[in-house]
Write a structure and sequence with these properties.
Layout (H helix, E strand, L loop, with lengths): L1 E2 L25 H12 L6 H8 L8 H10 L3 E6 L2 H5 L5 E6 L5 E9 L2 E6 L3 E6 H7 L4 E6 L14 H10 L1 H35 L2 H49 L2 H4 L5 H42 L3 H46 L13 H50 L5 H43 L12 E12 L5 E11 L3 E5 L6 H8 L7 E8 L4 E2 L8 E4 L10 H6 L6 H10 L3 H5 L18 H13 L5 E5 L7 H12 L6 E5 L3 H4 L4 E4 L1 E4 L5 E4 L1
Parallel strand pairs: 1-2, 10-15, 10-16, 13-14, 14-15
Antiparallel strand pairs: 2-7, 3-4, 3-7, 4-5, 5-6, 8-9, 8-11, 11-12, 17-18
Helix pairs in contact: 1-2, 7-8, 7-10, 7-13, 8-10, 10-11, 10-13, 11-12, 11-13, 12-13
Length: 707
């Protein structure tokens, strides 16, 4: 490492403070500290992405790992050593390697140094230590500094705003007219019921006119029934408008996702990918919910204020003061609710991503099942999510209670102020009663508007997380150091979290232009073996080598760029077949058609109503399992990867068609190596090499697997 003094001239100018990112376990402090500093210097990244690059050892990340990750994400970082005085002369924040209270190596973010040292501890949060205390912890004198290089400019996601929605409604003038008419009817019904009730209480009852009482009571009942029918019609309208909005909104958000298709389907981000698809749904639902409520309730509040001002102009100043008091009273509660909602929304996405990782193994499982702390991490996230959810419910309850109390106070003040005008002869009793009823209608609308704004905020949080996926480091775009020609496993073993072997002492080789098949009983670890070859899992012991055409071996982290995986289940988007295959890549339809013909899959796609231009997915033309797998196969083939792993990705195709696909792929111009998991004897007969995983009884009485 260079001396700390040699880095002083190249350290970044002062960066803005950023909240400390919390660690998930003891091994996670390095990635969490690095993410804190990256965000402080204006970079954008996600913790799963940094973990996937830093944690090469289950015990934690080294300084070299953190330097490599920071450099790969667009920064120029270096490790250094020195004294606290030298560190104080540097521009902060930086990462320091310390020993925590338990005597274990740990990373913290040094944010400022003066009479005290302010640090961000991924385990404990912000801390303020004495200089002596920090120096006692900082025994290694090692730090990670960031030099002056601008981070990679983030991609921009244009989230649909209110203007976009208004433009959409303007395109649907019939729906807009219907919505306006229904809102006006509902508002008129509310005001009319107030007038009728006022006539009933203040005129007919004191006069003892029974016929008028019956008539007005019947009119009041009729108005109530009409308001109920109007509400039902409004609900139908919202459902119909929502269907149209969903399609447009789904297209906009999904286009944002597909702007970076290689990164979207990159093996290191599949867990994020699954969570972000849920985010698309969250954004749709919450935007529709908020937009369908805000308009009508704001109009109702506006009309209420106009009616109150019309009844008594003297009440208008008091009304404005009351609305201000209500807004100030609810501001603190609403801010707390918004912050809690942001936390719980992020925690939900994080929990959903971890759940997918733990069950499906789509991410690198050295952070989950393959390590003893994996399930503890998941359980910790569940507890965090549950606590945050309770906090949101508590905040929402406080908001509702406060809004009702403050609304009641404001309403009482309006009525009391108006009663003084009744005594002075400036206002009639029926007008006073109507003021009370109209004001009472406004309080629930205020609560609904605030709740709708919260829904809109949740939708924007989901859209922000979609942007995080786009701004993650683009590891998939870098070029390989050499053209890969073979992949080999040597005495490889993989163990689960409880140290139970998945398989042991496996030797396996696949070369370009070869078809290698893999068979074995259920649960013997075939999919895990493919996941290792595809770079999704790391071996417990043994080696994996990727040989290049120049005789050089490729680095381990290049493996995920070498092997493309065709899973048994294909995700289908609500787009055309062509867009589902191209995934944002500028690939002409004729190119995909020629590839489908060569692979023997065109007969499955040409029978669709509009061929490659048929809209499929939710609300589109239904696809059979074979048609879905044909799309999944073509997605991979258009990328022409050096190696293809098929984890029962052809099991929905009939054997002759699957055999044609395999022959076409292996014999194609770029001659990929193919690893196939299949129980079909006919397909195994096509293989150049065949491997079988078998279960044996080991000395401890547990099942182990060998090749």
């Amino acid at each position: 490492m260079t001396t700390l003094a040699s880095t002083l001239s190249s350290v970044l100018t002062k960066a803005s403070h950023h909240p400390v990112v919390g660690q998930l376990d003891d091994a996670d402090c390095g990635p969490a500290a690095l993410l804190t500093v990256i965000r402080a210097f204006g970079g954008k990244a996600t913790l799963p992405d940094i973990r996937s690059q830093c944690l090469r050892d289950p015990r934690g990340a080294s300084l070299a790992d953190l330097v490599s990750c920071a450099n790969h994400m667009g920064f120029s970082a270096r490790a250094a050593s020195g004294s606290l005085d030298q560190l104080q002369a540097c521009t902060l924040p930086c990462i320091a390697h310390v020993v925590n209270e338990r005597g274990r190596p740990h990373y913290v973010v040094v944010q400022s140094i003066g009479r005290t040292v302010r640090i961000g501890d991924p385990a404990l949060g912000p801390r303020k230590l004495s200089r002596e205390h920090f120096e006692e912890m900082w025994k290694s004198r090692a730090v990670l500094l960031f030099e002056d290089r601008a981070p990679v400019p983030p991609l921009t996601l244009h989230v649909p705003q209110i203007q976009w929605t208004l433009n959409l409604l303007m395109e649907s003038k019939a729906l807009l007219a219907q919505a306006t008419f229904l809102i006006m009817l509902g508002t008129a019904g509310s005001i009319l019921s107030s007038l009728v009730a006022a006539q009933l209480v203040t005129r007919s009852v004191p006069a003892g006119q029974s016929s008028s009482i019956y008539a007005l009571a019947g009119a009041l009942l009729g108005i109530g029934m009409a308001r109920a029918l109007i509400g039902f019609a409004r609900h139908l309208f919202v459902s119909r408008a929502s269907e149209r909005l969903v399609r447009r909104l789904h297209t906009v958000l999904l286009e944002a996702l597909l702007n970076v298709p290689e990164r979207l389907f990159h093996s290191g981000l599949l867990g994020n990918h699954g969570a972000r698809l849920v985010d698309v749904q969250i954004a749709q639902i919450q935007l529709l919910r908020s937009l369908s409520t805000i308009g009508s309730d704001i109009l109702l509040l506006t009309v209420t204020c106009v009616v109150i001002a019309f009844i008594s102009a003297a009440l208008l100043p008091f009304l404005l003061i009351a609305v201000g008091i209500l807004a100030i009273g609810l501001r603190r509660h609403f801010r707390r609710l918004r912050e809690s909602s942001l936390r719980v929304a992020s925690a939900y996405s994080d929990l959903e991503e971890r759940f997918r990782e733990v069950l499906s193994g789509s991410r690198d499982l050295r952070f989950a099942n393959a390590c003893s702390f994996g399930m503890n991490m998941y359980e910790q996230r569940v507890s965090t999510f549950a606590a945050l959810q309770y906090r949101v419910a508590s905040s929402l309850g406080s908001l509702t209670l406060s809004s009702e109390l403050i609304g009641a106070m404001v309403l009482s003040g309006i009525v009391g102020y108006a009663a003084m005008h009744v005594l002075g002869g400036q206002l009639r009793r029926d007008e006073l009663f109507m003021l009370y009823i109209v004001g009472g209608l406004a309080v629930p609308s205020i609560v609904r508007v605030l709740d709708s704004v919260n829904s809109l905020q949740t939708a924007l949080v989901a859209a922000t997380r979609i942007e995080e996926l786009q701004t993650s480091s683009d590891r998939s775009s870098r070029s390989l150091s050499s053209t890969p020609v073979s992949i080999a496993l040597e005495t490889a073993s993989l163990r689960r979290a409880a140290q139970m072997p998945v398989w042991e002492n496996v030797n396996f080789v696949v070369r370009r232009g070869e078809l290698v098949t893999l068979e074995g009983p259920s649960g013997c670890g075939k999919s895990s073996l493919v996941a290792v070859i595809a770079g999704h899992l790391r071996l417990t012991t043994g080696n994996i080598h990727v040989e290049g055409s120049d005789g050089q071996r490729l680095a381990d982290d290049e493996l995920e760029h070498v092997v493309a995986l065709i899973p048994a289940t294909t995700i289908i988007f609500s787009r055309t077949v062509l867009e589902n295959i191209a995934l944002g890549r500028p690939i002409p339809a004729l190119t995909i058609q020629a590839l489908a013909v060569e692979a023997g899959l065109w007969s499955l796609l040409e029978r669709l109503p509009n061929g490659l231009h048929t809209v499929v997915g939710h609300g589109g033309h239904p696809l059979s399992a074979g048609e879905q797998q044909a799309i999944g196969v073509l997605r991979v083939l258009v990328a022409k990867p050096p190696f293809i792993a098929i984890d029962e990705g052809l099991n929905a195709l009939d054997e002759p068609r699957a055999a044609q696909v395999l022959s076409a792929v292996v014999g194609s111009s770029w001659r990929p190596g193919v690893i196939l998991i299949s129980h079909s004897a006919k397909l195994r007969a096509l293989a150049h090499t065949h491997y079988s995983l078998r279960v044996r009884e080991n000395r401890n009485g547990h099942d182990a697997v060998t090749s």
